[in-house]
Specification:
- 68% of the residues lie in helices and 0% in strands.
- The chain is built from seven helices and no strands.
- Helix 5 (82-97) runs parallel beside helix 7.
- The protein has helices at 9-25, 30-36, 48-59, 61-71, 82-97, 105-119, 122-139.
- The protein has 142 residues and is an all-alpha fold.
């Protein structure tokens, strides 16, 4: 095999989301999910930051869910579909656990909206945008 291409931040984020989403669908250990998806996600997995980010964001999920519950005016966390929920968990992890220099909050929000458009739909993208936008304004005292 030749040299692997370097992944963009967006591609790494998408890989992390895909692993997190897979994890939300079954009870397998995270390492088993990674191993089972080596061929499926061949492009993403050689980059350790993909699996490290996914694992850290999964560990942050309870904190993210508390924030989602606070900023969701219309839906309880239990009623949010798995795809937008997973995307918001990842974005909130980035907004609260990754330095602003590495991932600016606005980039985390924009990327979350793009993932929603790709994997969920316009309605979910609007919901995610509204929730993360409200959290951003609160966090930055706007």
């Amino acid at each position: 095999m030749g040299e692997r291409m370097k992944l963009t931040r967006s591609q790494k984020r998408e890989g992390s989301f895909l692993l997190m989403y897979q994890s939300s669908l079954n009870d397998d250990a995270f390492e088993e999910i990674v191993a089972a998806n080596v061929s499926e996600f061949e492009m993403f997995l050689p980059d350790e930051t993909v699996t490290e980010t996914a694992k850290a964001a999964l560990e942050y999920a309870d904190s993210a869910d508390a924030l989602i519950g606070t900023y969701s005016p219309t839906r309880s966390v239990a009623r949010i579909s798995k795809i937008p929920l997973t995307i918001m968990r990842l974005a909130l992890y980035e907004m609260n656990c990754v330095s602003e220099e590495d991932v600016p909050d606005k980039s985390a929000i924009n990327e979350a909206i793009e993932l929603c458009k790709k994997y969920a739909g316009e309605t979910d993208a609007k919901f995610v945008s509204g929730l993360l936008g409200a959290y951003y304004k609160s966090k930055h005292n706007e």
